[in-house]
Amino acid sequence: MDTQANSPSTTPTMLTGAEILWATLVGEGVTDVFGYPGGAILPAYDALRKFPIRHILVRHEQGAAHMADGYARASGKVGVAIATSGPGATNLVTGIATAMLDSIPMLCITGNVSSKVLGTDAFQEVDITGVTLPVTKHNALVTRAEDIAPALRLAIQIARSGRPGPVLVDITKDAQQATALFDFEAAKPKPYRPHPMLKVEIHGLAQAAELIRSAKKPIILAGHGIQQSGAMEQVRTLAERAQIPVAMTLLGIGGFPASHPLNLGMMGMHGEAWVNHAIQEADLILACGMRFDDRVIGTPSTYAPNAKKIHIEIDPAEINKNIKVDVALVGDLKEVLEQLLPQISSHHAGQRNSSTWIKTIEASKGQSAVRDIKNLPDSGHLYAAHVMHDLWRITGGNAIVSTDVGQHQMWEAQYFHHETPRSLITSGGLGTMGFALPSAIGAKVACPKKEVWVIAGDGGFQMTAAELATIKQENLKINIAIINNGYLGMVRQWQEFFYDRNYESTPLISPDFVKLADAHGIAGRAVKTRSELEAAVNEARAHNGPFLLNFLVEQEDSVYPMIPAGRALHEMIRRPGHNPIVETSNDL
Amino acid sequence: MLHTFVAYVEDKPGVLTRVASLFRRLNINIISVTVGCSERDGISRMTLVCEASAEAGHRIRASLYKLDNIIEVDDIAGAPAVTRELALIKVAATKQTRSAIFELAEVFRARIVDLTAESLMIEMTGVESKVEGLVQVLEDSDFQILEISRSGKMTMRRGHHTSRVLKAMRPTAEEPEEAEAAAEAE
Ligand SMILES: Cc1ncc(C[n+]2csc(CCOP(=O)(O)OP(=O)(O)O)c2C)c(N)n1
Ligand SMILES: [Mg+2]
Fold first, then answer.
1. Which ligand neighbours the alpha carbon of A488 most closely?
2. Overall pTM > 0.90
């Protein structure tokens, strides 16, 4: 029955709930799932071999969720994670919240105890739909075999529609064991109903076009929505036609080519100084698929005080949440821009003489833009910025990079220049340490032909390091760069700046990561100086199989610039002295 | 300011939790909530009253719509609407004091729905202030109030506006059969 049952076009068949689960996923086009078995999901695992689905056995369910997340971020498809009841289900929670805060389409399937004992504190029973209520876009408890297909199909529809997000379906063991009629077509959900408050009015478009025409210092804020909506072309056309410089949010990176002359770089807490200054000076902000997160606005009351603000956003609940805007175009970014573009002509940009504004920004880059990595005396030190810069240069910027959370994440965003969408995979909203390694596994499974790099701190890497075994078992060619500074670096930096250098609980003794890799059958090498760097990276890339590089970098380096909490965007802490770890044109 | 929302929601387990959880997440206190059947099978009607900033109304409504089980949300704001609350008030009353309470009830157009030797129960419907007025007078007249149960507000816009809500629930033009069938299935 294997090939028959899982073809959605076949006539309705009697199947067990477990078979319905897989048949529905196959019908929805799912080819890979990340999971971990246990009692309450065992019937589903028992049926798995009959279906053409690759199951990646993880080492911790948090890893499964991050892998499904990384899979979704790299491919745009819905990522699927599966776990058993109780501890299996609760282990998913951090991964679900990570996906929720970054609007990632993900489906989590959990087993639960039999419906007859639900609510009795049965062995490994947890009310996971209750637990995950605030961190899912939607969730459902399924207690009957005949409800499995409709619940999963609806879950997938919800996960990927509108503003995407994670959905959890909890299926009791007896529902998996019972038999029901599987009818894929009949299980189709109602047509998707867009959020009723989406609103793009003719006069709103006209107003936006007029603001763009009359602006002298406009700036585009490019968010995650560009890649989610697939609006890369439209944003580029808008920027080029009206000659508007583009600033990126962390998750926006990749949505607009880094090498584009209008790309200014990243904004926000660790954004480039000239970008934050430009935002503060702008007379028009055109926010595209971003949500004015507190990490990019400094304080709301001091944010871009002279700018009129246009907000193009798919989620009506984001309008006027943190920053009041003058024009809200509430809809899918790509569709809105397609309506707006005909009203924008390049002829008007000339009148504004936007080149003056762009020149002003260029000028304000000044010294800070003189990035003299190469000229830095080789004092035997290795700076994380060097590593990022060289990784970018050597890989040609064509790799998918999964970063963890901390200083290295910010350095990566500053020094690794992403040209293509879905090439930076990072936890922005939740800032989840431990994300890099598993999300890279997801990305590699989704895009097996792509070069995939993990860039993780010595702290965060240890949170999910067990997934090295998954990499080995699945034989995935993933390169791992550990930025080993001996500290929980980003926290140490806060202690340095705001807590009198009281380095409480941030120094970190780590295992020898190369030996750890070796114990997993994964090759590796430590890198202590810049002179060894290029050869080591080339060795890793050329190696037939996963490879780990342990970069022993300067321990007490900090990420600059930095906007301290509660300060305005332009009140940045700058790198002291004349020690910019930056690049010159020679470096490019 | 006081916000009043009328929401049409699927009549399914857990929907009330989802709605309540949203307010908790936004750190907004719900003053009252009433839920009951609506004119549509399988769809309940809620009236939610909460205290929040004037700007919060938009965000609450937009966030409610993000819940899959919510079909329609109306922010009543200042619109002409009829608002009613049901209150049951049990008052200590003897043979001697009873008639004075009857008189009060008469004035407030309330009804006596239960009577024992030591107490009676008043049922009244009206706007909040009317209920509060009756309670106040009972207290000021030194009657001992034993129990009060108030339903919380129910609100309905005035006029022939039902269309707004019903239209949203009507099948869309493109896929009439499907939506119809799906609605039936609920
Ligand atoms: C799960 C989790 N716990 C705690 C934190 C708080 N936190 C943010 S950055 C950071 C330090 C990260 O250290 P490391 O992984 O070594 O990276 P580095 O900053 O040194 O590059 C910590 C502890 C977090 N973001 N996530
Ligand atoms: Mg570190």
1. 1
2. yes
